[in-house]
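fyi for ur records
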Amino acid sequence: MIAMDPVTILLSVVVILCLANVFNNRKQEKYKNFPPGPTTLPLIGSLHLIDKDKPHNTFIKLAEKYGPVFSVQLGSEKSVILCGYDTIKDALINHAEEFSERPESPVFANTLRRYGVVFTNGENWKVMRRFTLSTLRDYGMGKKSIENKIIDECECLMQTFRSYEGKPFNNMTIINAAVANIIVSILIGHRFEYGNQSILRLMSLINENIKFLESPMVRLYNSYPSVVGWLPGGHRTILENSNKMLEFLRETFIKQEKEVDINDQRNLIESFLAKQQEGKPESTLYYHDNNLIGLVSNLFAAGMETTSTTLRWGLLLMMKYPNIQKKVQNEIERVIGSAQPQADHRKQLPYTDAVIHEIQRFCDLIPGNLQHSTSRDVTFRGYVIPKGTIVLPILSSALKDGAYFEKPEKFYPEHFLDSEGHFKKNEAFIPFSLGKRSCAGETLAKMELFVFFTTLLQNFTFQAPPGAVLDLTPAIGFVNAPLPHEICAIPRS
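which gave:
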């Protein structure tokens, strides 16, 4: 051991203290006039305060004390939380550019490798989003061609429901597969049978990842990736599942589509490959296989999970509130009879439309939203938020904002009806978020929800199995999914 004289030790301590003071002063300068928040603890910050199962609940409670714009420190990272519709709209619409980026999230960086459209930034994100929106429109989003595919899928779904002859069954896998087939038809131009092992495996990987995204271990990993990375937990499961999923997509969706006629593109993947072959600088920079795999992964997961989970909530709520179910059925009978429900019928079915909106509001599908980050320093509502700060606009706080919804904690379709029973829009209804990062598939999801829901209610009455207790408590996970349950689909004569 090398002995150090007292003077050297003293100088070393002074240097360390000076450096620490400089670092602290710089940090304080960076966060001067930063939004207020709870007192933090060393290393863990505010993690000890956060509800491990439903973090958004903690944020909404903290907003009551600190206001609609406040900060929390999750591990070593300071984040800004936005609560309430007015605040979220102000940030994502009035300051759209400043709040438009995604932060570097270790769990997503390691699984999706910064490709695709959901978690990317800069020019790559802009090119991929433009391509996604234009190509979804090209292959039918919001048009009759995709509506016909939804109607055909409705028939397959109803045949499966009828096969249970009114006996109890779990509808999760069936509805997941039905909804997945719509995005699959856009991606590769065909559908899977509900029992197909490939689609079942893919859906299982996605569902498991969504379940683990809000786990305490994943939150710790995002704060301290180098320290926590080697430990077992949900973060490792997500990485393993994502690698399996990406390999599956590469084998199933991409390789079989490599031969493409650029003059006869039949689906989204072929359109991407055609861009790849154009020979422009953009073709090499952005239209490469990694972006294609990332994009297909984003679209498949988002296109399946959100709509199918909302539909399952819809049927559960109809069982819970049979009087509302009957009013929907009566309106469908009165207005369109036995005709196939179509998107054009929406305006003629105001009560049904209100119920679908209330299902989306009440189920509060992605309560915490995906993280945003600031693209540059921004002054927002009197606070200075530095470039690169993680920002969480809490969608749940808008969908259950008492200033806009009379009974925010109740299932109450009248939130979307005026005194004469006409459908009434509510600006705080933002399940697809707002601004530059709003859901690219919103138009498709709305059509799917309306056609699937009205067709099912037209043809079945949904009841709980004898003796079953219907629990509306959401399952633990990033997405608010219903707890496992069975339904009885009773055919209507």
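The chain is about 50% helix and 5% strand. thats all i got for now
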